């Protein structure tokens, strides 16, 4: 309860109270008089059995004895039965701990879902490419399926459609170009080499990021970041040299994908500052624009006639399950990317980078087991060194990712 002040001055009148102005004389701490029958008479004193509380008082202080006569101080009061409790939003230790636990659980679910969807995508993608070696069409179908899923989600109200303008699409265009190149290049790689080998080479993406940022953008990094490039480059080189089924097209596809995704991240970081579209809607817009860019190139490189012949051959070999494989790889491609962008909304770029490193480990291990990929101990060592270097890169780059 707020302490109040008894005023040893002429009593308040209703007109004086209505203007909330009064003069202070000698003061002492006690209970405020209460208001009763304020409307009875303008000449009567104000009193009541209901206590008054001070709700605000500007420039309120104990008045010195030498205060000039006639000085006024404005204050506001309210009756106790009309008062409302003050709402104070204070997180108690237990509440704060529960919030942190809930956030950790939420991020863990995001990561587990992201990794699981990515593993499933890579398995079905490789199955499709083994019997239908048309990476350009396969990449196009992945983007088309994701775009269709989001258009339906917006139409039925599952997700709120983003508010975009021409400037948004202009800044998104270079991001979409880089995304299209990186996606197709990675698919071309997986069509020619083992999934594990593609992801071992793609674990060298941080090296491309540092080199591009240093020599094209003039950014500098801590010494620990430059040192982390040694195991990344060395591990990837060791894995490539010892790869049993080495293929130059597959190797170059993974390298081009690394470079393209580095530029995609740079363009995205520079172009999307201040934009309100984020998370799954941002990736949906990126997929749609990338699809429009990719379609004419896919037709020019492979062509409908080759697609039709390849489709008949795949159906003859696999049967109706082939259609499910194509649908699954397209759906899971969009879902894992969508969840990854949703994860990035909840965590720091550093945590996301570490999660991406762990994701590659899960893909490499699962693909080796499922496809029974022959691998030599030296090849395993190279992969482990490259992944370790990526982890060290993430740790050394903390200052740049805050």
TrEMBL record:
- Family matches, as PANTHER family: SOLUTE CARRIER FAMILY 35
**InterPro entries linked to this entry:** EmrE-like (IPR037185), Sugar_P_trans_dom (IPR004853), Tpt_PEP_transl (IPR004696), TPT_transporter (IPR050186)
Residues of the Sugar phosphate transporter domain = 105-394
What is the designated name of this protein?
A: Sugar phosphate transporter domain-containing protein
Q: Whose protein is this, by species?
A: Rubus argutus (Southern blackberry)
Tell where it localizes. Answer: Plastid, Chloroplast membrane
List the GO terms this entry assigns under cellular component, sorted alphabetically: chloroplast membrane
MF annotations from Gene Ontology: organophosphate ester transmembrane transporter activity; phosphoglycerate transmembrane transporter activity
């Amino acid at each position: 309860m707020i302490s109040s002040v008894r005023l040893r001055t002429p009593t308040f009148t209703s007109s004086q109270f209505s203007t909330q102005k009064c003069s202070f004389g000698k003061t002492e701490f006690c209970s405020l008089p209460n208001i009763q029958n304020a409307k009875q008479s303008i000449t009567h004193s104000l009193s009541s059995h209901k206590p008054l509380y001070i709700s605000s008082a500007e420039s309120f202080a104990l008045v010195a004895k030498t205060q000039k006569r006639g000085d006024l101080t404005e204050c506001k009061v309210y009756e106790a039965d009309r008062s409302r409790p003050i709402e104070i939003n204070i997180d108690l230790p237990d509440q704060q701990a529960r919030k942190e636990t809930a956030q950790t659980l939420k991020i863990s679910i995001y990561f587990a879902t992201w990794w699981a969807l990515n593993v499933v995508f890579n398995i079905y993608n490789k199955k499709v490419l083994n019997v239908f070696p048309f990476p350009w069409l396969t990449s196009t179908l992945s983007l088309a399926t994701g775009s269709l899923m989001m258009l339906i989600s917006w139409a039925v109200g599952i997700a709120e459609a983003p508010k975009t303008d021409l400037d948004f699409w202009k800044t998104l265009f270079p991001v979409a170009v880089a995304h299209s190149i990186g996606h197709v290049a990675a698919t071309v790689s997986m069509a020619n080499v083992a999934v594990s080998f593609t992801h071992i080479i793609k674990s060298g993406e941080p090296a491309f990021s540092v080199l591009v940022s240093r020599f094209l953008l003039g950014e500098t990094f801590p010494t620990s970041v430059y040192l982390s490039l040694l195991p990344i480059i060395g591990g990837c080189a060791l894995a490539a040299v010892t790869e049993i089924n080495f293929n130059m097209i597959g190797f170059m596809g993974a390298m081009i994908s690394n470079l393209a995704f580095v530029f995609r991240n740079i363009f995205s970081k520079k172009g999307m500052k201040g934009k309100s579209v984020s998370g799954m809607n941002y990736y949906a817009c990126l997929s749609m624009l990338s699809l429009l860019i990719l379609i004419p190139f896919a037709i020019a490189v492979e062509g409908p006639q080759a697609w039709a012949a390849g489709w008949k051959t795949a159906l003859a070999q696999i049967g109706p399950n082939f259609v499910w494989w194509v649908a699954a790889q397209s759906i899971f491609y969009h879902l894992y990317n969508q969840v990854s962008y949703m994860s990035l909304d909840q965590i720091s770029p550093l945590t996301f980078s570490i999660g991406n490193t762990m994701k590659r480990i899960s893909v490499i291990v699962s693909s080796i087991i499922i496809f029974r990929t022959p691998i030599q101990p030296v090849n395993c060592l190279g992969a482990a060194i490259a992944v370790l270097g990526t982890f060290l890169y993430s740790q050394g780059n903390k200052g740049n990712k805050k």
